[in-house]
Amino acid sequence: MLTGRRYRLDFTSEQAGFAEQVGGACRSVWNTALEQRRTYRRRGAFINYHEQARQLVEAKNEPEFAWLAEVPGHCLQQTLIDLDQACARHGTWKVRWKSRVRNAPSFRFPEGGKIAVERLNRRWARAKLPKLGWVRFRITRPLSGTVKNATVSRDGGHWYISFLIDDAICPPERHAAPGTGVGIDRGVVNVVTRSDGAFHHQVFARDREVEHAKKLQRDLARTTKGSQRRKRAAARIAGLARKIRRRRQDFAAKTAHTLATSFELVVFEALAIKNMTAGVEPRPDLAQPGAFLPNGAAGKSGLNRSILDKGWHRIELASRSKARYTGTYVITVNPAYTSQRCNVCKAVDRKSRESQAVFRCTSCGHAEHADVNAAKNILTAGRAEHARPRPGVRVGARKPRNRVGRKANRQATAAQPTAQTEPELAEIPRL
User: Fold this and answer.
1) pLDDT for position 394
2) 150 shares a domain with 28
3) Of 264, 269, 316, 368, which one is the catalytic site residue?
């Protein structure tokens, strides 16, 4: 089974400088190839990875692009492969540029067979990377598998290496607790509420850190663009945000471990988080041209920050990753009316939700914590969805793990690669 291992690198000054050079070359290749693809699309044509890789080889032989030959060639080719996959998945016009300021340098060595890893002692190991030589890293956990590829990236002031390994672990045939299931209601007050009444919550940004972040933002606003003071102020803000992000990752991993090891079926709501955190449309005042009416944008922006701070999507991703090792089914269901439906009499009434934490059914009088009631409704819908027969699956056969839903399965089976004709065009930017 494929999984990842991430370690902190101990670069020398020469290795750190060369890593910056490789990251800059990969960024330049990405942006140039993306502009080339957009130029083709403006003229109604297409260009694929193979043609761009051929042009990359030609560009490395030209004197003005000699700096491309100094970096590992397969890192540049992997950049073109990543761009090709991103354009196929999201479309050429939705793929973003890579900025030197906003995007940290990152590059991948795709040939794991050429990467040698040796353990030096209890705390340190080293890996031999093409053109970088032997690099030391802090081995906080054993690799325990065969290296498939390695990605080097910078996060803040430190460099990290991420190995994709094959740990040769087969998924279990049955879960340790067969027949068990849990519904998950994700919220702002409580990050995770389970249908059995348990809560998982953690404050990622403490009050003093929020106040400190505001002070750092004020300090940044007083600096001049391009100055050293501005760079130091931005680094302090990034360091605080990185600390909060790591707490969120740790919480998601621990919660996912608890859910996957305790239950055979884990049911989430299919939340459109991007739509939920969208801004509010302005309301022009027809009586006063150029003026706008109150639209609650300030309150909505606060709710958006609270939702994004909880890391709802990260919890679901971590659960799917952990479920591969435990045989857990992770599915999503339609979230409509889960917070307004009584899990006892199934009556739907928005007045039953008296407050954020109180649910009292107007039909049967059942009273319960509102989030627990919603989690029970999610579990009921998940069990019905999980028990529904699937096309092409034998009765009694094991259903595929980590299903997203029938719609996603139909889209995956219906998507077929189509051949595109590439007419010869003149004056197309080259690599």
Assistant:
1) 43
2) yes
3) 269
Question: What is the reported pLDDT for 123?
Answer: 94
Q: Is residue 250 flagged as an active site residue?
A: no
In a shared domain, residues 103 and 7: yes
Lowest mean pLDDT among 85-99, 258-272, 414-428: 414-428
185 catalytic per annotation: yes
The residue segments making up the domain with residue 103 are 2-166
In a domain, 319, yes or no: yes
User: How many domains, in total, are found in the chain?
Assistant: 2
Instruction: Decide if 233 is inside a domain.
Output: no
One domain, residues 197 and 292: yes
Residues 154 and 38 in one domain: yes
Which entry of 84, 185, 264, 316 is annotated as an active-site residue? Answer: 185
Residue with tokens 């003005």, as numbered in its chain: 64
* The model's pTM: 0.81
Spatial distance between the Cα atoms of 253 and 86, rounded to a whole number of angstroms:
27
371 in active site:
yes
154 lies in the same domain as 185 = no
pLDDT tens, position by position, 139-155: 999 998 999 999 999 99
Distance (Å) of CA 317 to CA 174, 246, 257, 320: 21, 15, 12, 5
Tokens of 350: 């928005």
- What are the residues whose beta carbons fall under 8 Å from the beta carbon of 161, sequence distance 6 or more? 6, 7, 9, 127, 135, 137, 150, 151, 152
Using one digit for the tens of pLDDT, what is the confidence trace for 102-152?
Answer: 899 999 999 998 999 999 999 999 999 999 999 999 999 999 899 999 999
Asked whether residue 300 is assigned to any structural domain, the reply reads: yes
**Which of 117, 141, 166 represents a domain boundary (last residue)?**
166
